[in-house]
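User: I'm curious whether this sequence folds into something compact or stays loose and floppy. Could you predict its structure so I can see for myself?
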Amino acid sequence: MTTMTPELKERIDNLVNQNKIMVFMKGSKLMPQCGFSNNVVQILNTLGVPYETHDVLEDYEVRQGIKEYSNWPTIPQVYVNGEFIGGSDIMIELYQNNELQQTLEVALAS
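Assistant: Here's the prediction. I'll summarize afterward.
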C-alpha cells in the first residue's frame, strides 16, 4: 500500500478535475483489460458521452493511490465533474435506473 504523497494527490486531482468524465481502469477504452472495466466502457459508449480513461496497469502509483484517494478498494473507478461516482456495479445500477444518464447530462451541460 503506497502512502498518498502530495505529488500523487495532485496528479490524481488533475486527472479528475481536467476531465468531465474520468475513468481509472485496467487497460484503455479501446482495449479494456478486465470485465469490470469493460462494463464501464460499454455503458459510457452506449450513452455516447465523451470520457477519458487512465490505465492503472501502466501506472502503479495511481493504481494504488486511487484506492486511497476515493477510499474505494477496487478498479475501475468513475469520476464525474470531480466527484467519485463508483465502480462497475454502481455504474450498472445507475444505468439501469436511468440515473446515470441524468447525472452525465447535468455534468456535461455545466
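Summary: The two ends are 36 Å apart (CA to CA). The helical segments are 6-18, 35-47, 60-70, 88-96, 99-109.
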